[in-house]
Specification:
heterodimer; A: about 140 residues; mainly alpha; 3 helical TM bundles of succinate and fumarate reductases; 4 helices; about 70% helix; B: mainly alpha
């Protein structure tokens, strides 16, 4: 259930109200927990890779060397899963708020899920198959 | 004497400056800072998700490039060629916009998470939104300075 069901318009001064229960409450809690985790993971990643390291220094050699450290692999995998699921649920809430036509809503939601699942699998494949030691293929 | 509970911002009638132009459309701008803040939260969220798709695809090129260690050592692999696009001046500015979107989305999300834990704080939403913007502008001024510095000082500066 979105906040803008007929009769209770979402005027949205900054947040949707806490759902009373069920899956929606679970997702509401997930968004906040994953959001706080991503605050550290994503802002840490942005600081390390986009501010402290200049883009000129980023090469295939640099990116592969980073993956020899299992810590960064786990860090990136956590970020990939949390960010994509957080993002997809966010898009779902937006679609439910704005798309009034039932058929379009279902189409757009499942298109979003499919695209996101594809990129989640692609990202997982990349992170799990990159060489773990120098020189390996 | 207990004060009446503070209503959640998404509940109840909005205090409008004028009648809504499209009353049948929900989630429209109603003229207060929390509303802009909330629309920007959604826009930055969708924007970051779209960038994530590009970012995952570009990382997939690294898997492909890893098959050719000689090209990796020489810096001529497909991944290196793709990164050339990110190294143009336009993309440096876009990179600042990306960091700005993530920082904005994080700060807004953190604010509503904190405010929902203490519902009485919705009384101070205006102050909270302004604090959020101040923190965002300070962080972004510092980040933009360091990220754009190579554009203005191509030889390392100082």
């Amino acid at each position: 259930m979105s906040t803008s069901t007929p009769g209770s318009p979402s005027y949205g001064y900054g947040s949707r109200a806490r759902p009373s229960g069920g899956y929606e409450l679970g997702w509401w809690i997930f968004m906040r927990v994953s959001g706080v985790l991503l605050l550290f993971l994503a802002l840490g990643h942005l600081y390390l890779m986009h501010v402290a390291v200049d883009i000129e220094q980023v090469t295939a050699e640099f990116a592969l060397a980073r993956m020899f450290n299992p810590f960064w692999r786990i860090y990136d995998l956590s970020m990939l899963f949390l960010a994509l699921i957080h993002g997809v649920n966010g898009v779902r809430v937006i679609l439910e708020d704005y798309v009034q036509h039932k058929g379009w809503l279902v189409t757009l939601k499942y298109t979003t899920y499919t695209v996101a699942a594809f990129f989640l699998l692609l990202g997982t494949y990349v992170l799990l198959t990159l060489p773990t030691v120098p020189g390996a293929r | 004497m207990n004060d009446p509970p503070v209503p959640h911002p998404s509940q109840g009638e909005p205090r409008l400056r004028r009648a809504p132009r499209f009353p049948q459309v929900t989630s429209v701008y109603v003229g207060r800072e929390g509303q802009w803040s909330y629309i920007l939260h959604r826009l930055t969220g969708v924007g970051v998700l779209l960038f994530l798709f590009v970012h995952i695809f570009e990382t997939f090129l690294l898997t492909y490039s890893a098959q050719d260690p000689a090209a990796v050592a020489a810096g001529t692999s497909l991944y290196d060629q793709a990164l050339e696009v990110y190294k143009t001046p336009y993309f440096r500015v876009a990179e600042v916009a990306l960091v700005g979107a993530v920082v904005y989305h994080s700060f807004h999300g953190l604010r509503i998470t904190i405010q929902d834990m203490w519902p009485n704080s919705w009384k101070y939403q205006k102050l909270a939104v302004r604090t959020q913007w101040a923190a965002f502008l300070i962080i972004m001024a510092i980040a933009a300075f360091f990220m754009l510095r190579p554009l203005f000082m191509p030889h390392g500066g100082a």
